[in-house]
Amino acid sequence: MKPQTYPLQFDPILKERIWGGEKLKTILNKPIVSKITGESWELSTVEGDVSVVSNGSLKGKSLMDLIEEMPKEILGTKVYERFGKQFPLLFKYLDAREDLSIQVHPNDKLAKERHNSFGKTEMWYVTQADPEARIIVGFKENSSKEEYLKHLNDKTLVSILDDVKAKPGDVFFLETGTVHAIGAGLVVAEIQQTSDITYRLYDFDRKDAEGNTRELHVDLALDAINYNKVETQKKYETKTNVSNTVVDCPYFTTNFIPLEDKVAVSKTGETFTVYMCIEGSFEIEYDGFKQSYSKGDTVLVPAEINAFILTGKASILEIYIS
Q: What is the 3-state secondary structure (H, E, C) of 97-166?
């Protein structure tokens, strides 16, 4: 007999990074113990970093185990048809005390050939930004492999890359091939394909505590990069108590819900839904179940739960696969 599902929360998987800080604790209430915590993986099936349920009767079970046992109930009929028993997305919060490395992610074809992995299309929602914080995204003007390599070798790569001042609520959508870096002073929510494949192009020549520089992947990146200027920033509406579309791509749909009172959600059972609480607090209520969530919480609503109510006062990201 299959266990009953319910909205699932997971223990955060915390990652130290050379560029990390302490805002994941001070802003998002994550249980960090290090002053260089850069990432909180909220929902993951990446090998070696599989999320474990933290609430209710399924506490202690891994997300992979649940999908193995109840694939259509968790993932949804359409997601299961497309991906089998793979969870196709990865959800994170990142705290950039320093600039992240300048990097790029391969597309599905390259990632499959080289790493037997999905590519890494992703989006960032800026949850907090220090004054003057910025994001590096793509080239200022259409470039070329030759121009890129010249500036990389001269350590002037940043001069040909576009940077954009970022403020809370800004959204950046990064298709594979887009050269990018999160700048110092930003906390972002990241939604991406399930992939941990990153090609690091330039790391500002910094060294870790042992005096070592981090590995670069210059050769691998050459045919992964889109050398053309790209538009990455997304504009979206903010109507209250409505799912406002922010990103709608083949890999995921992300909506922004400014919740002021109550929203009734009706689903078809084709896809799971994930909610990330950016500000405030809210409750999910259905069929006798009622659970509260607050800023920094991430919750997975299994696909078989097809009617529920969100109540409260909160800013929420709603993610599913169309």
A: CCCCCEEECCCHHHHHHHHCCCCCCEEEEEEEECCCCEEEEEECCCCCHHHHHHHHHCCCHHHHEEEEEC
Give the integer Cα–Cα distance in Å for 89 and 192: 6
pTM comes to 0.95
Evaluate if residue 1 carries a pLDDT over 70.
no
Q: 138 with 226: CB under 8 angstroms?
A: yes
CA–CA distance, 188 with 317 (Å, rounded to integer): 12
SS3 state at 44: coil
318 three-class SS = strand
What pLDDT is stored for residue 77 in this prediction? Answer: 97
For residue 185 the two structure tokens come to 């002073």
| Residues classed as catalytic | 200
Which tens digit of pLDDT belongs to each residue from 30-55? 999 999 999 999 999 999 999 999 99
CB 229, CB 141: distance < 8 Å = yes
Reading the block at residue 45, the tokens are: 């099936």
**What are the C-alpha distances in Å from 70 to residues 73, 316, 320?**
5, 27, 18
SS3 260: coil
Q: Could you read off the pLDDT of 75-121 as tens digits, one per residue?
A: 999 999 999 999 999 999 999 999 999 999 999 999 999 999 999 99
Q: 274: number of CA atoms within 13 Å, CB side?
A: 28
Q: How far apart are CA 131 and CA 58, in angstroms?
A: 43
Tell me which DSSP letter residue 31 carries: -
Please give the distance of CA 21 from its chain centroid, rounded to a whole number: 18
Indicate the SS3 state at residue 239: coil
Cα distance between residue 153 and residue 157, in whole Å: 8
Over its C-alpha atoms, the chain yields an Rg (Å, rounded) of 20
DSSP structure string for 183-201 = PTTEEEEEEEES----EEE
Query: What is the spatial distance between Cα 266 and Cα 275, in angstroms, rounded to a whole number?
Result: 15
